[in-house]
């Protein structure tokens, strides 16, 4: 079996690690912990402060963004995106798609064998493993949709503020005035409110998905290429592989008893996908 390491999946595991650690060590994260995590993630994307000239343009830029993104815009956009982008994926959680997911996660069988079964046969097999697989998929779909819409409400203020700053940086006073004049026309107002949503339009998504097979092939090739590129690097180490001096230094940095290092420092396993 070949093991392919996906960089995107590894990135997600790095982001998820601190959240998982908080949940395991102290239950629900506190407000202070959530704020610290927010600062950490925000720090991943650093930006230069606006100059005085750019700050002076910010009110005009904010006025444009208010036209482009009226209140509730982000939730509406997210709803459209969920429908056109995530909808087909979420549909897999119901019907034959859900059955295949249940079978594939519980039974070691060639996916081609599962795909060759009739929908009734898939449903029968999935029902043996999870009699409520259909209802479970519906619950997952509804919950994910609700969570995404709730997140959109939280994201919108910061998103609009960031867009305003970006406009203040990229356009001068005259250009902002030209854009405002265009947005004041019926066509300009329509364009302002539809422009960003166009990225989630079914026509755009359908055309983009045509490249998916080639992208998946690249991911598969990338896994092998990454393994080859890293072959000359020293192997990763667990706490048990460290010398006494290294363990002592680690305990000192973490502020814990050296004897508990194995409990505190838990390596995050790389996310892999196995294939023939």
| Cα end-to-end separation | 5 Å
Total number of helical segments? 14
Q: How much helix is in the residues? A: over 70%
State the low-pLDDT regions, or none.
Answer: 1-17, 264-276
Oligomer: single chain
Side-by-side strand order of the widest sheet: 1-2
Beta strands, count: 2
Percent strand equals under 5%
Describe the protein in words.
This protein is an all-alpha fold and 276 residues long. The chain folds into 2 domains: 1-46 and 241-276, no CATH class; 52-200, no CATH class. The protein has 14 helices and 2 strands, in the order E-H-H-H-H-H-H-H-H-H-H-H-H-H-H-E. It has helices spanning 7-26, 31-43, 52-68, 73-91, 95-106, 111-115, 119-129, 133-170, 173-183, 186-194, 202-209, 212-229, 244-254, 261-264, and strands at residues 2-5, 272-275. A two-stranded antiparallel sheet has the order 1-2. Helix 3 (52-68) packs across helix 8 (133-170) and helix 4 (73-91) runs antiparallel to helix 8 (133-170). The protein is extended and about 60 Å long. Mean pLDDT is 77; it is low at 1-17 and 264-276.
Walk me through the topology:
Blueprint: E1 2-5, H1 7-26, H2 31-43, H3 52-68, H4 73-91, H5 95-106, H6 111-115, H7 119-129, H8 133-170, H9 173-183, H10 186-194, H11 202-209, H12 212-229, H13 244-254, H14 261-264, E2 272-275
Antiparallel strand pairs: 1-2
Helix pairs in contact: 3-8, 3-9, 4-8, 5-7
């Amino acid at each position: 079996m070949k093991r392919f390491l996906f960089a995107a999946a590894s990135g997600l595991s790095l982001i998820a690690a601190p959240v998982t650690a908080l949940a395991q060590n102290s239950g629900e994260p506190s407000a202070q912990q959530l704020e610290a995590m927010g600062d950490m993630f925000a720090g991943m994307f650093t930006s230069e402060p606006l100059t005085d000239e750019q700050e002076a343009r910010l009110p005009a830029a904010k006025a444009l963004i208010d036209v482009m993104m009226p209140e509730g815009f982000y939730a509406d956009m997210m709803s459209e995106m969920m429908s056109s982008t995530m909808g087909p994926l979420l549909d897999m959680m119901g019907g034959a798609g859900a059955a295949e997911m249940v079978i594939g996660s519980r039974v070691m069988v060639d996916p081609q064998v599962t795909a060759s079964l009739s929908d009734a046969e898939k449903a029968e097999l999935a029902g043996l493993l999870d009699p409520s697989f259909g209802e479970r998929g519906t619950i997952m779909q509804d919950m994910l949709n609700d969570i995404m819409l709730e997140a959109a409400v939280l994201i919108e203020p910061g998103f609009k503020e960031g867009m305003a700053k970006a406009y203040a940086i990229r356009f001068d006073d005259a250009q902002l005035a030209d854009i405002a004049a265009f947005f004041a026309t019926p066509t300009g107002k329509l364009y302002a409110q539809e422009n960003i949503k166009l990225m989630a339009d079914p026509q755009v998504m359908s055309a983009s998905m045509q490249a998916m097979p080639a992208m998946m092939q690249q991911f598969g090739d990338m896994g092998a290429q990454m393994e080859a590129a890293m072959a000359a690097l020293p192997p990763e180490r667990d706490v048990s592989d460290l010398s006494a001096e290294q363990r002592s230094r680690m305990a000192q940095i973490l502020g814990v008893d050296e004897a508990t290092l194995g409990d505190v420092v838990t390596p995050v396993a790389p996310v892999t996908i196995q294939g023939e």
